[in-house]
Design brief:
Elements: E1 2-3, E2 18-19, E3 24-25, E4 35-40, H1 46-57, E5 65-71, E6 79-83, E7 86-90, H2 92-95, E8 98-102
Antiparallel strand pairs: 1-2, 3-8, 4-5, 4-8, 5-6, 6-7
Length: about 100
């Protein structure tokens, strides 16, 4: 089941979708494990809405392949993440908004 992230007023964010079906946050995906983006978590405030839009703009869209390539040291932050053919650095709290389905 897919729902659209909503603003605090209850209005959906245009063009954004989030998965409420089983999935894990990208922040919990083990390194070097392939996964597929299911969607993005719903935003609770303006900062989170802006983050979700940025994640969508850089390619974290449902159906895209994704993989955590590396983690920072020490502390495991940021994450080096490949989505499609591009690689980005994300903070763990940002990666938690991306819901993925790990490949079996």
């Amino acid at each position: 089941m897919r729902v659209q992230p909503q603003e605090s007023s209850g209005q959906p964010i245009a063009g954004a979708s989030a998965a409420v079906s089983p999935g894990v946050g990208l922040d919990a995906l083990p390194r070097r494990r392939d996964a597929t983006v299911l969607g993005l978590r719903a935003a609770a405030n303006e900062r989170e809405r802006e983050l979700i839009l940025r994640l969508m703009e850089i390619g974290f869209l449902p159906g895209e392949s994704v993989r955590v390539l590396a983690t920072g040291f020490p502390g495991a932050d940021p994450l080096a993440v490949r989505v499609g053919q591009a690689t980005f650095a994300l903070r763990r709290d940002e990666a938690a908004f991306v819901l993925v389905d790990p490949a079996h």
